[in-house]
Please model this.
Amino acid sequence: SSGINAEYGGTIEVPVLPDSIFASKPSLYASGSIFFTGLDLNCSKHGTINQLNRNSKLFRYTISNKDFISITPDGCCVSGVCVEKFTGKVAYQICEAGGPHRKYTEIQVFSPAACGKPRDSVIVPGGYIHTVPKSLFGGKLCDSSWLDSDNIIMVSIEGPLSLIAKINVYTGKKEYLFKELYSENMSFDVVDQIGQKILFSFSHLIPFSDRYCQGLAFVDLKKKEPVLNLIKPTKSKKRCSFSAVLFNRNEKDFNGVFIHPMGKKSISTLVAIPHGGPHSAFSTAFRHDVFMFCQIGYSVLLINYTGSFGLGQESINDLSGNVGDMDVEDVHYAVQQTAEGLFPNVVLMGGSHGGFIIAHLIGKYPDFYKAAVIRNPIINHSTEVGVTDAPDWPYWIMGLPYDAYLPPVPSEDAYTIMLEKSPIVLVDQVRCPVLLLIGATDVCVPPQSQGLTYLRYLKSRGITCDVRLYPNDGHALSGVASSADSFTQTHLWYKKHLEL
Model:
């Protein structure tokens, strides 16, 4: 047993969890129960921040009788747990474990027995579970998502927009909040929430003023009063413009966001950026790097290719087995449609899986792209599989089976497939100058087997290339110093090789 601090400095004894379970995000509700997510350490315990597909369960511990139960079944991944503090209802996102690292989920609700049996629910120890009807949900529940006993809110990804959705947990009815109060193509996020009092932010790719890049607002839905804009848009000189764009290739829709400078400052260069993930997405929310590019004079295209979040679960599934082809061709098609007749110079920037796509593009279309900047790229899945913190990933994205409890030893056929779909096989065709931005502490895409290996291959073939190594930063290069330097070096690389 282990102690938990109780009233007036006393302790209570709770059962020690099995060594195979790692508890996270505990939450207490008024009657004296603790809910938490338990990660199954018999599978990989690494990479859980970015890989939302790990085997996990929802657990409940009742303090009064020391009752410790698992609420959800084996073989699932649980995330986004939020407790309604007074009724003890728990909403959470759940999906099958394994597969893509981010997927659309069901939302389920655990109701304690004292709340009564909801319609279409199943009995579990201590209460009932029912699934929110009508659809899968793409987004994330907040830590305190309950508006009232019937409704929750979540940040929902819809195409290139990030929206705040109100969802009835019994009917599945979804309603987007605040969208109609602001300009078109605005993205939103929840900053904090207590019941029906919501503090939220809103932004798009153009700053609201010289001082603020996003807005902040408060609303009490219960009082039905107007939204109070704490930081609101003010009149400022319009320096750039943007729009959400829709593409269709092979009868499949995907999208992006195009931003360009206004006036004489514009230069004839398009910066094309495929996101990493690959199951993430670009939204219209403010990005410092994109706006700075626009200030310099570049136009920018952010591309949500097949497999991006916000395009639906079918799109995510489509990428398995088609990686290195479907995603790459989507990006090239989007660039062609945007650049034709307008931009004689197209350059590339991206990281992780976005870097994987870029390395394919500059090998497959060596005369089309004029320069590339790649952050911590995946270059060869066959050498990544044994060293990454997400060893299941190369299997799923290549369309190969993977057992999290008994990881397979890669077969000759598996190695061959991983190699053939990786951009390293196109290195002999690369012609454009390449700058690599490498985080030395990256455990997701370890640089020795990926980015730095690619650098050696490029150098040995006489390709103009260089590397910026950030010794104290990892996969995202999110440190203040490294993110600032990487942006500066990216612009200087383009300027040098395009003679701007």
Notes: The first strand starts at residue 2 and ends at 5.
